[in-house]
Amino acid sequence: MSKREQNLTQAGTILLLSAIIVKLIGALFKIPLSSDYALGDLGFGYFSAVYDLYTPIYTLALSGFPVAIAKITADITSKNDINSEARLHFSALKLVFLIGIIVTFLFCAITFPMILLQSENKSAVFGIIAIAPSVLVCSIVSVYRGYFEGRKNMFPPAISNIIEALGKLVLGLLGAIITVKLTKNPALASAAALLGITLGTVVSLIYIKLRYNKDNRFVCVSAEDKKYQSGMRKELLAIIIPVAIASLSMGIVGLIDSLTLRPLLHALLQKNNEYGEILLAGTSYKNVSISEISTIIYGIKSKAHTLFHLAPTLTMSFGIGAVPLVTQYFAVKDKENVKKNVDSCLKFSAVLSMPIALGCLFLSFGIMTLLYSDKSAVLGGRILQLYSIASLFAALTIPTTALLQGISRQKEALISIGTGVALKLILNLILVPTISFNVYGAVIASLICFGVTFLLNLIFLIKGLGFVPDVIGTLVKPLIAALVCTVTAYFVGNMITTNFGTVLAIGFAGIIYVVFLLLLKVITVNDAKELLKIN
With 0-12 CB in 10 A as exposed, 13-18 as middle and 19+ as buried, what is 274? Predict the structure, then answer.
């Protein structure tokens, strides 16, 4: 293995570890935030209504812009052209700043009327005001993250992600708790939590800007260099647009739910007044208005949706890490190394996502009770069961989308995503207003959306590569190991029906999973050495 490949492997490990840390911090933020000590289900419904509108933009800043900028930076860095690096960064910063302003304006212009026109959710407008500035800040941060990723230095982006998550945890959670204690208003408290997210992105920007200045204190952009800005911007746009659209798949699905689920549920409950209490059966909610019922249900759904995001967040690291290597080997028609890296990306993505998804399927009620409370465990557990399968498809969609980008098949990735998103919107409109489906219809629509997107991605990937990946080694064997460990967890969890039993079941299942991964030779000693960079 070359030094370059080792650095890329190490970079992927750093991204994965930072993603795990950020996800843990996010759990420490959202789980107590949704509790009765902070927002409760009603306040969390207001919070989620705004956050789901914001998520597509955040996803774009997290993975879309940095991937595009990193791709060009890596090419320039390989030529040791410092002046071009400076020109690229200056052009990218100026371009993305302009895009950020436009997107911020559009975000406010579109979301304000949408929220105000929804009589059941007008109070969420405070959250829009609180989080709108972070749209611009995230766009600027993405330029610096892309620069460092392109130079194969993943520490600054990883640290900035962790700083942002910590800022959100401390400032957002503290702000929500203080506000709800002082005002008793869950809508204002949700806005305080969203303001914490904005402040977290500002702190992250300060860190990464200082780090950039330290590394580039002797580099400046001359007037002559600025002449090349126009060409740089065109090159950036040519890469940013398809990569950005592809990266929005996860966020757009949440956006569709944010725009359609609450209004459709509200209309359904108005026609069937008694049905609201049936939906909330098993919870302690009594005598609440129809508008509050739809928001409470949305809040409970959002709790399960938080767990849905766990597996895709982790597999994103391998998708991003695979792009430069696959691009490099595909360009020189090195089929052997292309296949090696495609199989490795799919295998590690499956190894990470399958036990999480199947664990949420088999232990849904125990997990919801453990993380939240009995108050929403019945409805939330049923929703999580459906989300668990959707999560598996979503987790495999992200790396396959990245691999398609790596072999310059961005258009095919857009077809897959466009098809899935269209199905999601159509099915939401058909299923949610139907009594027999209601809120579950939105989750089923997400499952079909990501299932179809993944299958199309796989078909396009096989066609683009000219060979079939090792499906048995990368997908089937990890699935067998995951099934064994989760069935074991299910029986342990049923024998000890307490929170301790759930924790014990998860821990025991983890040990069984590692054992079967080794027995089936899914993970070898060499894999461990590459992942941990042990020489």
Answer: exposed
